[in-house]
Amino acid sequence: PASTYLPVPPVKLEDHTRSARQSLVGLPVPEIPDGIEGCIGNTPLFKIKSLSEATGCVILAKAEFLNGAGGSPKDRVALNMIKMAEEEGFLTPGQGDTIYEGTVGSTGISLATLARAKGYKAYICMPNDQSTEKSDLLHHLGATVERVTPAPITSTEHFVNLARTRAKEHTLSGKDESKGFFADQFESMANYRAHFQTTGPEIYEQTGGHIDAFVAGAGTGGTISGIALFLKQEMGMGKDLKVFLADPEGSGLYNKVKHGVMFSNTEKEGTRRRQQVDTIVEGIGINRLTENFEAGRELIDDAVKVTDLQALKMARWLVEEDGIFVGSSSAVNCVAAVAAALKMPKGSRVVTILCDSGTRHLSKFWKKVGETGLEDHEQADLIGFLGLKP
Ligand code: PMP
């Protein structure tokens, strides 16, 4: 509505800011975000040139690492979970309430950031095999971090179960009036709804609804479910849009999508449940079915298994060819986007997600990229470099 726009100020021609240019041509000037939470969402979508050239398709990336609070799609989820908790009376700002969460990092970072902005404390339980950049960042954001040895989901020591227990202990302690709120990203419907309400509509708008395939990995499953639900159900793209799951080594989701079972004959259930998944990739791949994955599972048409080596190669390719410096889950998504493009008619538009920046993965994933001694990819085409058959 017109009333929400700022009055158009006089503009000097030499002023090249976006607002000045917009008001010059009579376009509404966007409102200035009120605090860091106003910088969440509305991320750019851009074409990855090298992947598009190599596949003959148009590979588009939703730059979710540019979310302005915690730098990942989890900003949207964290904001929505906090909003829901406030509405339902589980959190009240300025009362010493604490947000508890089990996370491999990104959700914790988004929650800890928003906790600071909104007057809460954050208590994060995360496995100790994730990159130290993420736990260091959490410390500096003022969160309490409990790093735990990876354990099966059936164990009380699993990072998610521990976070739930800590929240309960807080509330039951009765020391003061403050509350402990377990955010529960894996099972909370506020997770996929954040993507259903924001990321999905943004992708639709940014592409004019011209999308042939959508490719994403799943940790909680909130991203793939929320976006697939919006595009397929709300936009009526059901038959035309192909949704691909990108799945790293050791994850059971590929088999669930392809064969209807979590484990193949070659994978022993007991050993695979030892930790989240056996891969260098952080944030995606899991060996259980979460509520958020289930919310959109029937809308997933196909799955692509991505090896750690392919992810490492893709990460290096993207930085060398396109100047795109991303983390491991984004690299997996891009490998799967290329594999998906090879299954699609030439010229198809394939959308995927760049989840977080490589700066969060310097000590582990990017160190490995450096150590892997990859052959000079200039001598290979992308498809050959990745070992993908056309
Ligand atoms: N990438 C990164 C870096 C993540 O931390 C996560 C979430 N764990 C994902 C991707 C996957 O997103 P989702 O939980 O929505 O499936």
Task: Describe this protein's structure.
With 390 residues, the protein is an alpha/beta fold. Helices cover 41% and strands 13% of the residues. The chain contains 15 helices and 10 strands. It has helices spanning 18-24, 49-55, 74-87, 106-118, 132-140, 159-173, 189-207, 222-234, 253-259, 269-272, 291-294, 308-322, 328-343, 362-371, 382-386, and strands spanning 45-47, 58-63, 98-102, 121-127, 144-148, 180-182, 213-217, 242-248, 302-306, 349-354. It has a 6-stranded mixed beta sheet with strand order 1-2-10-7-8-9, sandwiched between helices. Helix 4 (106-118) links the parallel strand 3 (98-102) and strand 4 (121-127). Helix 3 crosses helix 4, helix 12 crosses helix 13 (328-343) and helix 12 (308-322) packs across helix 14. It is globular, with a radius of gyration of 21 Å. The model is unreliable at 268-275 (pLDDT under 50). It binds 4'-deoxy-4'-aminopyridoxal-5'-phosphate.
The description of the largest β-sheet is: 6 strands, mixed
Q: What is the string of helix and strand elements?
A: HEHEHEHEHEHEHEHEHHHEHHEHH
Helix content: 40-55%
Bound molecules: 4'-deoxy-4'-aminopyridoxal-5'-phosphate
Q: Quote the beta fraction.
A: 5-15%
Low-confidence stretches: 268-275
Number of strands: 10
Tally of DSSP helical segments: 15
Q: Estimate the mean pLDDT confidence.
A: 89
Instruction: Give Rg in angstroms.
Output: 21 Å
State the separation between the terminal residues, measured CA to CA: 49 Å
Strand order of the largest sheet: 1-2-10-7-8-9
Q: Give the structural class.
A: alpha/beta
Which outline best applies? globular
Subcellular location: Mitochondrion outer membrane
Cofactor: pyridoxal 5'-phosphate
GO biological process, one term: cysteine biosynthetic process from serine
Catalytic activity: O-acetyl-L-serine + hydrogen sulfide = L-cysteine + acetate
